[in-house]
Design brief:
8 helices, single chain, about 200 residues, two-stranded antiparallel ribbon, 2 strands, mainly alpha
């Protein structure tokens, strides 16, 4: 169930964000042209073995290790001593302001690392989502998996746009938000049940 929800979230967020981005950039043609050149230079516009390895595998793994595995952990431990992702703050539920601050700061830095205004703008909400996934599970593998799905699905945006073209941009965006919302809700419920089970096991011990 977790794997299915990760795929649903990844596909939903990548393609729905692409529609939203195209709409916003339609009012800023110069910025749109600059962004297109950056994406072409980065190798994200055409699927190849090299682009798949660098964009869809290497980048997500390295970015998640740096941003969620190191930075988020550092911020949580600084604001809530004793914290670690797997057991929480020595078995104590961390304060919500500490979690929110760590997620937002990590996401701001994650966005800034992309070093251009367009990528930074959508990397920030993506960072929030990835940090939330990591916080919910304490497992870097889940945030890496989500990041992999998001990046790899970028190569299928044009194909999906063609399939959804009869719906119009607004209709396609609305349709794509459905798997995104369902995926988030399903993931929250599954990870919530796991957290309760872990807490019950810890109390039994």
């Amino acid at each position: 169930m977790v794997a299915v929800s990760i795929v649903a979230i990844g596909l939903g967020v990548q393609i729905s964000l692409s529609y939203l981005l195209d709409f916003i950039l339609s009012f800023m043609p110069d910025l749109a042209e600059e962004y297109a050149e950056i994406m072409e230079a980065a190798g994200t516009t055409e699927l190849s073995v090299l682009s798949a390895l660098t964009v869809a595998v290497l980048a997500p793994v390295l970015e998640e290790i740096a941003c969620r595995g190191v930075l988020f952990e550092f911020l949580m431990r600084a604001m809530h001593p004793g914290w670690n992702a797997r057991t929480g703050a020595e078995g104590v539920t961390p304060r919500k302001p500490a979690v929110v601050a760590a997620i937002l700061l990590t996401s701001l830095i994650f966005g800034a690392l992309h070093m251009n205004i367009v990528q930074s703008a959508y990397a920030f909400p993506m960072g929030v989502l990835l940090s939330w996934v990591y916080w919910r599970t304490g497992n870097l593998g889940y945030s890496i998996a989500l990041h992999l799905v998001v990046n790899f699905s970028s190569f299928g945006v044009e194909f999906m746009s063609g399939l959804l073209a009869p719906l119009g941009d607004a209709g396609a965006f609305a349709v794509l938000c459905v798997p995104l919302l369902i995926g988030i809700i399903a993931f929250a419920r599954v990870t919530g049940r796991r957290a309760q089970a872990d807490a019950g096991g810890a109390q039994a011990i």
